[in-house]
Amino acid sequence: MSEVERVSESYVPFRPGLLRFEGGRGVLVGGRCRSCGAVYFPAPEVCARCQGQDLEGVDLSGRGTVYTYTVVRQSTPEFRTPYVLVYVDLPEGVRVLGQLVGCEPEAVRVGMPVEVVFEEVARDPQGRPVVGWRFHPATEA
Amino acid sequence: MDVYVVGAGMTKFGKHPDRDAVDLAVEAVNEAIRDAGVDRRRIQAAYCGHVYGGMVLGQKVLARTGLAGIPLANVENACSSGATAIREGYLAIRAGEYDVVLAFGVEHLTTRFRGALTPGEEDLEGALGLTMPAVYAMRAVRHMTEFGTTREELAYVSVKNKRNASLNPYAQFQNPVTVEDVLNSRPIADPLRLLDCCPVSDGAAAVVLASERVVGELGRSRAVRLAAASLRTGTVEVGLPSMAFEPLTRATAQDAYERAGVGPEDVDFAEVHDCFSIAEVLRVEGLGLYPVGEYPKRAARGEADIGGRLPINPSGGLLGKGHPLGATGVAQVVELVRQLRGEAGPRQIEGARVGLAHCRGGKAAGVEGAACTVLIATR
Ligand SMILES: [Zn+2]
């Protein structure tokens, strides 16, 4: 059983509706306006571009490029510093914020290819794993 | 129906461990009323901007200043709270509802916060670890990537504002710093360091606004006309917009320029929301006061200094004067008044006739910024 499968059986999503697990793989779920095609993450109730009220869920690509980044050296008590934050541009035309793991902070660059990974990011009050997304330097395609 | 600022007052910004928010606001309100030379019984309504002051903070201030009984609304719009309070008063006078209105802002932030402000833990991005310094750090990376802005040029913004603050007895920082001091200060969110960030501050500021009718009575010699008070909220971003430019600031400014009948070329100086060194860059370029991408280089050449081509943040700004959230937008107008009256002492901008104040605050996932205000005052 893969890590994701094992986790997905008892996982609590970091934010319901923004991620789901299928066939042992996790995906980020955005919203697409059926009227104008605008893609969002997360999806609003009404499209900001055309005010259409009919938005459908859309699976987002697991790969993108770093638009910008920072190494956070001082934060609130819930977060252990330092950690790397990145805004990642996905091919669907949405920008997603997340923490970057899997490389030295000094190695992060604008334009760097990354992929989304799903990991336990916290424990809920019942002690169950809360699963959210992070980014990782992309492995060769 | 023109609206005038007839009185302005503020406390010294900084750490006030022995005083509370109400106490600070009382001082600022009394100073503004005294400065206006108006009988306080003529004040018909009040607006109080604050973020963390708790329930009915404004009413507690009225109760101690002989003003209880008049209508008051407490206004929260993050860092734009104080400017939004002024705008409420401006709109009420323009509507013909009142002739004399009090607007004030206050915050006792040192008892609420240490370290980095965040968008709030209920916000998606806040829960992912986004802090306000991190937002601006990532915008700085983009400005450096797109325009070749250097780390030293960003540091100069802080150097300039802390130097201006050393000429302002109401400012939190009274000592100038060097570019080296900025670059050697503690890292907060790369590439930003401690001296790129505004301090945590306590303070209050207040203004008395009056209609054309009342200003005729009080005398115009020290009155400053509030030519525009514009407010916008950030739109939801669709696609992949540049983080090195601020459409929200641009849209709010365009609204204010149109209403005031002036353009960016007419502005003699500006107080802008420099919560971080990079923030001043984005504001000034968004306001159209300097060409997009060029402000850091031009500022480093002295163009934005007092005495330069177009001075920015002569009061010291948030970086030098301090940033008690709710008080900030009101304190900017206090500086506009002092400069336009010619009462700014060693930091006076000679011949200033048009001043602009810009605030923006708050962050919500998906939007560029929460609230933005641009106020224009003329002499
Ligand atoms: Zn649409």
Architecture blueprint of SSEs:
The complex is a heterodimer of chains A (141) and B (379).
Chain A: H1 3-10, E1 12-13, E2 19-22, E3 25-33, E4 39-40, E5 55-59, E6 63-72, E7 83-90, E8 94-100, E9 113-123, E10 129-137
Parallel strand pairs in A: 1-10
Antiparallel strand pairs in A: 2-3, 3-4, 3-5, 6-7, 6-9, 7-8, 9-10
Chain B: E1 3-10, H1 21-36, E2 45-49, H2 57-64, E3 72-75, H3 81-94, E4 100-108, H4 124-127, H5 132-147, H6 151-165, H7 179-184, E5 187-189, E6 192-193, E7 202-211, H8 212-218, E8 224-233, H9 247-260, E9 269-271, H10 277-286, H11 295-300, H12 317-321, H13 325-341, E10 354-361, E11 371-378
Parallel strand pairs in B: 2-3, 2-4, 9-10
Antiparallel strand pairs in B: 1-7, 1-8, 4-7, 5-6, 8-11, 10-11
The complex binds zinc ion.
Zinc ion (ZN) is lined by residues 33, 35-36, 38, 47, 49-50, 52 of chain A.
Task: Give structural notes.
The complex is a heterodimer of chains A (141) and B (379). Chain A has 141 residues and is mostly beta strands. Chain A has one helix and ten strands; from the N terminus they run H-E-E-E-E-E-E-E-E-E-E. Chain A has one domain. In chain A, strands 1-10-9-6-7-8 form a six-stranded mixed sheet, with helices on one face. In chain A, strands 2, 3, 4 and 5 form a four-stranded antiparallel sheet that branches. Chain A is globular, with a radius of gyration of 16 Å. Chain B has 379 residues and is an alpha/beta fold. Helix content of chain B is 36%, strand content 18%. In chain B, strand 2, helix 2 and strand 3 (72-75) form a beta-alpha-beta unit. The longest helix of chain B has 17 residues, at 325-341. Chain B is globular. The two termini of chain B are 16 Å apart. At the A-B interface, strand 6, strand 7 and strand 8 of A face helix 4, helix 5 and strand 5 of B.
